[in-house]
Amino acid sequence: MFGLFKKIQVDIDGTTYPAAKNSTLLRVCLSHGINIQYKCQSGVCGKCAVIEHTSQGDIPTLACQKVISPSETGRFSTIR
């Protein structure tokens, strides 16, 4: 239970932000005032699309569905 409150770091557009484990990337962006488009917050509209930078390459994903995990590098770019 206490692991839910562990803080991890997420890189968004080259800036590092603290994020709560199991929070969505959209929630992290909104809580830090990052300008990201969104509407439905459930993945239906697709407006919160971002690019996740992984060791396998750049992968498009939806910020409202991407759950932050401490086992990942957490590097993302917003799409403007």
Automatic annotation (TrEMBL):
The 2Fe-2S ferredoxin-type domain is annotated at 6-80
Q: Which CDD domains match?
A: fer2
Fetch the Gene3D superfamilies from UniProt: 3.10.20.30
Organism listed in the record: Vibrio rhizosphaerae
Q: Which domain of life is it from?
A: Bacteria
InterPro entries noted in UniProt: 2Fe-2S_ferredoxin-like_sf, 2Fe-2S_ferredoxin-type, Beta-grasp_dom_sf
Return the Pfam families for the record. Answer: Fer2 (PF00111)
Q: Tell me the protein's name.
A: 2Fe-2S iron-sulfur cluster binding domain-containing protein
